[in-house]
Amino acid sequence: MSTLKSTLDTTGPEYAAYREAMLAKLDELEAEHAKAVAGGGEKYTARHRERGKLLVRERIELLLDEDAPFLELSPLAGWGSDFRVGASVVTGIGVVSGVECMIIGNDPTVRGGASNPWTTRKIFRAADIALENRLPVINLVESGGADLPTQKEIFIPGGRLFRDLTRLSAAGIPTVALVFGNSTAGGAYVPGMSDYVVMIEERSKVFLGGPPLVKMATGEESDDEALGGAAMHARVSGLADYLARDEPDALRLGRRIVARLNWRKHGPAPAPATEPRYDPEELLGVVPEGLKVPFDPREVLARVVDGSEFDEFKPEYGNSLVTGWARVHGYPVGVLANARGILFSEESQKAAQFIQLANQTDTPLLFLHNTTGYMVGRDYEQGGIIKHGAMMINAVSNSKVPHLSVLIGASYGAGHYGMCGRAYDPRFLFAWPSAKSAVMGPQQLAGVLSIVARAAAESRGQPFDEAADTAMREAVEAQVEAESLPMFLSGRLYDDGVIDPRDTRTVLGLCLSAIHNNPVRGAQFDGTGFGVFRM
């Protein structure tokens, strides 16, 4: 392979300014992550500990193999909403008894672990990832069920939680429930529909209706233990497969269950990996503040891919899109990375051909976003930009190899689609703190609205209110800017997390490892259809 040669001046003033701007964004990100880690806050955390219980992240830490990484997903879910950051649940991929698993843990310090609308969306995303990547699922259950004031947004879509558990099991993907406290009403179906269930003596309570509801519905009087206690479910109903003494014992049993799954990856093993030749720390100073100055994505690749080795495809053609072959932690990838923002016809056709080649060789694709979209203008429209952009979007839509997307800069307009944005179902999608995504840039969007309003006033023969137009533009720019930022988008689960640029290689490696639990196969090139179309 060809070794990338970095030209990044790490001693210059521009690098220093970009680095300081990125560090400031990371400080903001860390403050928001801290809110998620804090759960329900000091009062409810203290109350939880007084009951002799572990916090959700402590449970996860004991469940995981020693020193194993945990790739937390969607930690900012619910950001900017009326609900606490994190959506009262922790989801992520970690190694348990040598097996990569999807872990879903209720945070009982947030309203008793009750599910709000963002909780269900976050768990849906986790279930999708588990199914696509063949990851056993471990639920750490302690939830009071639905957040009743928002039941209208939870009840109907929330039934998917139980459907997903049965579909995972039907696909041969084991599901495990470790019940640490209450699992009531609809929540009772989480252990009820899991393949393996562990309950804790005198702690776990699983019932469709608690004593007050049973009294109201039937007149029957019963206590928690007789109605849904762990001992009853282990000895009478049979719902519990294992009866644990305490929380550490439940986690030990969970690890033993996973150890006995006889789990094997179906995808190819990675080749030996080598570290990049350039320091990932330098990624802090690659992206310009404000995104108006283009940057070379090869500087990112030089600090992410194995050995900084990259075989570029069509380097002299359509050069505002970089395409080529590399490895990350030993796994092969085909890379599409925006170089100068705009996608022209040449770039679109180049991408379509390259995506077909990746499918022909069963190679996962990595998209590094920094695009303002497809080029507009009379000459470009006459030159076929719509049909050429459509070729690229068609190729992305029908590609069968796994896709990973990282938004490192702008991701605007249809360029977001062509580069495999969220609507195109990448296996994983992460963003850097420098990323922005919207239908177009704030100034462009406000300008379009201004032009339309001016034309409408002229057609009606009315004077145009310049002061009102200025105020409108300022308001729209501020709104679009705020709604383009990564924390806003991550809060709505439009990505799987905002990551530190220095962690990009590690995050991609963890994702690629998870992906290879399943076979990696592209669109069929079996001699019965068409070969690769040269664009």
Automatic annotation (TrEMBL):
InterPro entries tied to this protein: AcCoA_carboxyl_beta (IPR034733), ClpP/crotonase-like_dom_sf (IPR029045), COA_CT_C (IPR011763), COA_CT_N (IPR011762), MCCB/AccD1-like (IPR045190)
PANTHER family per the UniProt record, alphabetical: ACETYL, PROPIONYL, PYRUVATE, AND GLUTACONYL CARBOXYLASE-RELATED, METHYLCROTONOYL-COA CARBOXYLASE
Presence of keyword Magnesium: no
Domain named CoA carboxyltransferase N-terminal: residues: 22-273
UniProt name for this protein: Acetyl-CoA carboxylase carboxyltransferase component
Residue span(s) of domain CoA carboxyltransferase C-terminal: 272-517
Native species: Prauserella shujinwangii
Pfam families cross-referenced by the UniProt entry: Carboxyl_trans (PF01039)
